[in-house]
Write a structure and sequence with these properties.
This protein has about 425 residues and is an alpha+beta fold. Helices cover about 30% and strands about 25% of the residues.
Length: about 425
């Protein structure tokens, strides 16, 4: 177990190259099993969840060549040597379950333990099961093993929720199913688009990516390809918040402009705005001369920030925005609709001096600005972990963030990246 030691009071400023999207690269790794030919992924982030997914791919028979300097990975799986994954590998991340779709499509069976991942609330698998069954697979949920088997045929599928991972899993299964498949109420996040673009580059026939209705015409086989992982706009939003709460100017490079259209409205409520160069793929945040101030709704009504399915504000940035609110003059209600345990980390912020009322598992009210003070806290999940790091950067005195390896699952070398931007931070 590692920990991060921070000394608050330093300004976070400079230039930061945004990494590849964690939520895009993981299903893209799983999709590489759909072909016997080489698949090369570009802009791959060096995070522990990627390492875990690559280890899982190797266990199925994939040959992996990873170039850390070039942020590139090539996977070649001429033959699947098993359709099972070990409990140890599955427990390391929730996205281990994304191998179910490719395994079903390529060899007609899959056997996986229940997936691991962050403890942010109940995350149901029912939508995956319903989708696989609609495609003709037999699906059995045992206590320790989830089993799928069958020849897949196209179907009209209405998802009971716009689940990102279920959309990805069903999409990967459908590309090799016989006939046509319609997936309605599909998730439409940028990482779904990345996956669909990759599959189309492999020879799949998918239309509608980026909308809630995906049309898939099954093909006999897929071939190799080269695909780029989009930018991690969640990482970008985290670094913007770190600069904002410490008063620093920040230039982000390597961005894809489209996702920031969704983020801009929520950040603007706190007085955080930026300019984007589409040609140079950069985002420039310049702090205003006055302190951060909440923008109230018409009639001076207290504003609220709620998350939801894309293009609503993403749940993965709620923890980060709550920390931003502690340093912004005014009051805001946060409504976390997706996960009932994500907001429990605010107890740590209250210990640091934040003015927060937790109304219930899904809602908190934050009034700022508050002087935060350092302390020792344990990171409960990836996003809460980076939120605590951002709070520690704005706090007086030293802080220690325990269980720091959880942050490594979604952020590349966070102590090195923040040190380069002026933070006093080290890992032990």
């Amino acid at each position: 177990m590692s920990k991060l030691l921070l000394q608050g009071g330093r300004t976070i400023a400079g230039t930061h190259a945004v990494s590849g999207n964690k939520n895009a690269v993981l299903p893209m790794i799983a999709a590489s099993l759909l072909t016997a030919e080489p698949v090369t992924l570009l802009n791959v982030p060096e995070i522990s969840d990627v390492s875990g997914m690559l280890d899982a791919a190797k266990s199925f028979g994939a040959k992996v060549v990873r170039d850390l300097k070039e942020h590139k990975v090539t996977l070649t799986t001429p033959k699947l040597k098993t359709a099972k994954i070990s409990a140890e590998l599955a427990s390391r991340m929730r996205t281990s379950f994304l191998f179910a779709g490719p395994l079903l499509a390529r060899v007609g069976r899959a056997s996986l333990p229940p997936p691991g991942g962050d403890a942010i609330g109940h995350r149901r698998l029912d939508t995956h099961f319903a989708g696989f069954r609609a495609l003709g697979a037999k699906a059995v949920a045992g206590h320790k093993t989830l089993r799928f088997k069958g020849d897949l045929k196209g179907a009209k599928i209405l998802l009971d929720e716009a689940s990102v991972t279920a959309t990805e899993n069903i999409l990967m299964a459908a590309v090799l199913a016989k006939g046509k498949t319609e997936i309605y109420n599909a998730a439409s996040e940028p990482h779904i688009v990345d996956l669909a673009n990759m599959l189309n580059a492999m020879g799949a026939k998918i239309a509608g990516a980026g909308t809630n209705r995906l049309l898939v015409e099954g093909v006999e086989s897929l071939h190799g390809c080269e695909a780029r992982v989009g930018c991690d706009y969640i990482e970008a939003g985290s670094y913007i918040a770190a600069a904002a709460v410490t008063g620093g100017e920040l230039l982000l490079t390597g961005i894809d402009p489209e996702p920031f259209e969704v983020l801009a409205g929520a950040f603007r409520r706190f007085g955080v705005t930026w300019t984007i160069s589409v040609t140079e793929k950069t985002l420039h945040y310049v702090p205003k001369k006055k302190r951060l101030k909440m923008r109230y709704d018409l009639g001076d009504a207290i504003p609220s920030v709620a998350d939801g399915i894309w293009p609503a504000f993403p749940s993965d940035l709620m923890s980060i925005l709550i920390v931003l609110a502690t340093q912004t003059r005014g009051t805001c209600l946060f409504f976390e609709k997706m996960f009932e345990s994500r907001l429990y980390f605010v107890d740590h912020l209250r210990q640091m001096g934040a003015k927060i009322v937790q109304c219930d598992p899904h809602r908190v009210v934050v009034t700022g600005p508050s002087q935060l003070y350092g302390g020792t806290f344990s990171s409960p999940d990836i996003r809460a972990g980076i939120a605590l790091v951002i709070a520690a950067l704005a706090a007086k005195g030293p802080s220690t963030i325990l269980n720091a390896e959880i942050i490594d699952r979604g952020y590349v070398a966070v102590e090195q990246q923040l040190s380069a931007l002026g933070a006093n931070i080290e890992r032990k």
